[in-house]
Amino acid sequence: MQLINTSHKSPNHSSRNGTPISMLLIHASAGSFASALSWLCSSASKVSSHYLLAKNGAVYALVPLELAAWHAGRARHNGVTDLNACSVGIELANLNDGRDPYPPPQIDSAVLLCRTLIARFNIERGDVVRHRDVALPSGRKTDPAGLAWKAFTDRLYAEPYAGDTHYRVRRTVTGGATIRSAPRINGAVLGRLRAGDDFYGEPIEGNMVTIYGFGSSRVWARSSTMQHIWMGLLEKVT
């Protein structure tokens, strides 16, 4: 399970004005984690991001996803210029000099976070971009400098782990199956699958669930990206 720190909030945000989330925009902070956290949460800076990831893998949520963070600046992607309205901003703590490393814990956290968002909002690979790819004029931004981009995005769209079992949401579950961040009924909701949708994962023990017509169970299915669905709603695909 990915733990997300919500102890710091940025005042720098605005309405998405009904624009759905359709892209992820990856940044580097060009400074330390502490300086980035302070700057992104300062009303004087007029900038923010939805998430800030420390080198040790800690994830800080600074702006709620339903709001637009102020991170894209002058930018364009696929003809769209208001990227704040349609994107999730993810900031990696890094000096952005091309030499400062992105340690494995930080990259692992970024992969898990991005894969969760990709599944939740159905984001295409071409819509996961670096700040340097979209900033205007071209060459104005270089972040995230030094990040092995292809290797990173390959992990975001990798197939389920070979050891995962193929499940399908039961056709009789008309309301669908809720994807949660943890194997418990009060875990944060990450998304929903419809009857007949596929899910890849492994059975694990979780908290007791009782739903009329399905009985009680402590067993949940956990995906390789730490998404959880109660096993009572799934059937194994043969």
Estimate percent helicity.
10-25%
- The CATH superfamily title of the largest domain: Peptidoglycan recognition protein-like
Q: Assign the CATH architecture of the largest domain.
A: 3-Layer(aba) Sandwich
- Average predicted local confidence, pLDDT: 91
- What's the CATH class of the largest domain, please? Alpha Beta
Structural class: alpha/beta
Task: Tell me the number of helical segments per DSSP (H or I, 4 or more residues long).
Answer: 5
Radius of gyration: 19 Å
Distance between the termini: 28 Å
Strand content: 25-35%
- The number of domains is 2
Helix-strand pattern: EEEHEEEHEHEHHEEEEEEE
Got a strand count? Answer: 15
Description:
This protein has two domains: 153 residues, 3-Layer(aba) Sandwich (Lysozyme-like), CATH 3.40.80; 72 residues, SH3 type barrels. The chain is 18% helix and 30% strand. It is elongated, with a radius of gyration of 19 Å. With 238 residues, it is of the alpha/beta class. α3 packs across α5. It is built from five helices and 15 strands. A six-stranded mixed sheet has the order 1-5-4-7-3-8, with helices on both faces. The protein has a five-stranded antiparallel sheet with strand order 14-13-12-9-15, with no helix packed on it. The chain has a two-stranded antiparallel sheet with strand order 2-6. β13 and β14 form a beta hairpin.
Keywords:
238 residues, Lysozyme-like, SH3 type barrels, six-stranded mixed β-sheet, 5 helices, elongated
Describe this structure in a few short sentences.
With 238 residues, the protein is of the alpha/beta class. It has helices at residues 33-40, 83-86, 104-121, 131-134, 149-156, and strands at residues 4-5, 13-15, 23-28, 51-53, 59-61, 67-69, 87-92, 128-130, 165-169, 177-180, 189-193, 198-211, 215-222, 228-230, 234-236.
